[in-house]
UniProtKB/TrEMBL annotation:
GO terms for molecular function: ATP binding; dTMP kinase activity. It catalyses: dTMP + ATP = dTDP + ADP. The gene is tmk. One of its GO terms (cellular component) is cytoplasm. This is Probable thymidylate kinase. Its EC number is 2.7.4.9. One of its GO terms (biological process) is dTTP biosynthetic process. ATP binds at residues 7-14. It comes from Halolamina pelagica.
Length: 197
């Protein structure tokens, strides 16, 4: 089973991901961008406010393809629980927002079309929900992807994804205390694991 954690920067999903290491030590934990050289290239692009958004998309896509072949598919073939901090939905939400002023008329559809040929959809996606202003304040707005106005576009894209596949997404209120958010997500993962056995 592949469970992904999604949300705006500052939503608390990485904190939750780290806490799940203790409650589900049997799982394979991974994240995007990865720690491969593809992921390093992605992080360089994130830190470069002048990076071309289309070029950045393809760096993210290359990192995702490598992540699938090296980590995700092998773990799933071994019947492991895989929990990923960010995955393809981050691409659809964030890169579609980054490309909103480009020549692409429907950036999200374009990005999803690229991925559809090779990606592996998550079984469930836990979306930790906070508003863009809270997310920007928590994340510190250290780069172009953490600005409140940009995050508002990202939030809108996530809502489109959730509306399209409501059965895949589990929404968790990220404005609760960190402990409450962790408890809620752990309960969700436990239920999902129970339904699989």
């Amino acid at each position: 089973m592949l469970i992904t954690l999604e949300g705006l920067d500052g939503s608390g999903k990485t904190t939750v991901w780290e806490a799940l290491h203790d409650s589900h030590p049997e799982a394979t934990f991974t994240r995007e961008p990865t720690e491969s050289w593809y992921g390093e290239a992605v992080n360089r692009a994130i830190d470069d406010d002048g990076a071309d958004p289309l070029a950045t998309l393809f760096l993210f896509t290359a990192d995702h393809a490598d992540h699938l072949s090296r980590t995700i598919r092998p773990a799933l073939e071994n019947d492991e629980l895989v929990i990923s901090d960010r995955y393809s939905d981050s691409r659809y939400a964030y890169q579609a927002a980054a490309l909103s002023g480009s020549d692409l008329t429907r950036p999200m559809e374009y990005i999803r079309g690229i991925h559809s040929a090779f990606t592996r959809e998550p079984d469930k996606t836990i979306y930790i929900d906070v508003d863009p202003e809270t997310a920007a304040a928590r994340s510190g707005s250290t780069n172009q992807f953490e600005d409140a106005a940009f995050l508002a576009q990202v939030e809108s894209n996530y809502e489109r994804l959730i509306d399209a596949e409501p059965e895949r997404f589990v929404r968790v209120d990220g404005t609760q205390s960190p402990e409450a958010v962790i408890d809620t997500v752990e309960d969700v993962v436990d239920r999902l694991r129970g339904s699989q056995s």
